From TrEMBL:
Domain Ketoreductase: 5-180
One of the GO BP terms on file: fatty acid biosynthetic process
SMART domains the record matches: PKS_KR (SM00822)
InterPro entries: KR_dom (IPR057326), NAD(P)-bd_dom_sf (IPR036291), Sc_DH/Rdtase_CS (IPR020904), SDR_fam (IPR002347)
Keyword terms, alphabetized: Oxidoreductase
PANTHER family cross-referenced by the UniProt entry: 3-OXOACYL-[ACYL-CARRIER-PROTEIN] REDUCTASE (PTHR42760:SF133), SHORT-CHAIN DEHYDROGENASES/REDUCTASES FAMILY MEMBER (PTHR42760)
Gene3D superfamilies: NAD(P)-binding Rossmann-like Domain
Protein name: Unannotated protein
Entry similarity comment: Belongs to the short-chain dehydrogenases/reductases (SDR) family.
GO molecular function: oxidoreductase activity, acting on the CH-OH group of donors, NAD or NADP as acceptor; quinone binding
Claim: Metal-binding is one of the keywords in the record: no
Length: 256
């Protein structure tokens, strides 16, 4: 489905990014695994190669725009083109500075915005020219269910993800004529290291599971499958969309 395509995935050493990198590689893309976690990235490359796929790791901190520039250049140098960007690196800082606005540590606010929103912009800024030179492409930005339905009490994170959704829509207008599509995904609650605090507690995990329409928590793998669809021509009619891939989390009000 994606053979001959070249993909960059940020935050690819863990969770959703890892599943996305592995799914894109299974679909035939050559993948650049980008993360600040070099050990984790290496293990993703090993797993892709063991599965017969093609991948390289490239250490990238998405808060440093020069590193994002170097990342896109590395993809083109290694594989000859750039067609797919999954801008996915993100952080959440519950009880570590983020929270209700008056309680937020301004440094935590800056950090969350810098990783979750500026990082997405920096990657797009440098990926788009490389995609134009490659004949077009697809950008998938990881937003969140919180882009439309905040949990409350994590104001910085919700603002950053709302920003990702709107940046996606705004960029789609400019990208369309260039043969590039830009979409965002809004997962609900996925069992990844980011959510250790929720999923490490059986009562909390059950409460969060019941908020999904089918009563199930989400897996990174199901999000990876969606990324493959958005990267492929099968999703050619989608541009500027926020796909709420949240098993119904944002579709109904849970009983109180
Ligand atoms: P995770 O913690 O498992 O993975 C995040 C990855 O991003 C890690 O490998 C980490 O090293 C990397 N990273 C952090 N800061 C970085 C930086 N400055 N530069 C490069 N890489 C960096 O978390 P996850 O749950 O897989 O989250 C992935 C994305 O999905 C995030 O944007 C997150 O906000 C979003 N998301 C997660 C959920 C969920 O329920 N887990 C729901 C909605 C959206």
């Amino acid at each position: 489905m994606l053979s001959g395509r070249v993909a960059v995935v940020t935050g690819a050493a863990s969770g959703i990014g890892r599943a996305s990198a592995e799914a894109l590689a299974r679909a035939g893309a050559s993948v650049v695994v980008a993360d600040i976690d070099e050990v984790g990235s290496r293990s993703v490359v090993d797993s892709i190669e063991a599965d017969g796929g093609s991948a390289i790791a490239f250490r990238t901190d998405v808060t440093e725009h020069e590193e994002c520039a170097a990342l896109m250049k590395r993809a083109v140098d290694a594989f000859g083109a750039l067609h797919i960007l999954h801008a996915n690196a993100g952080i959440a800082l519950p009880f570590r500075g983020d929270g209700f606005a008056p309680d937020i540590d301004p440094e935590a606010w800056d950090r969350v915005i810098k990783v979750n929103l500026s990082g997405v912009f920096y990657c797009a800024h440098y990926a788009i020219p490389a995609m134009i030179a490659s004949g077009g492409g697809s950008i998938i930005n990881t937003a969140s269910s919180m882009a439309t339905l905040p949990l409350g009490g994590l104001d910085g994170y919700a603002a950053s993800k709302g920003g990702v959704a709107m940046l996606t829509k705004s960029m789609a207008a400019g990208c369309g004529p260039l043969g590039i599509r830009v979409n965002a995904i809004g997962p609900g609650y996925v069992d990844t290291p980011m959510n250790e605090m929720i999923f490490g507690n059986a009562d909390l995990a059950a409460a969060f599971a019941s908020g999904h329409a089918d009563g199930n928590l989400q897996t990174s793998e199901e999000i990876g499958d969606l990324v493959v669809f958005l990267a492929s021509d099968a999703s050619r009619s989608l541009n500027g969309a926020l796909i709420t891939c949240d098993r119904g989390w944002t579709s109904f009000k849970r009983p109180v």
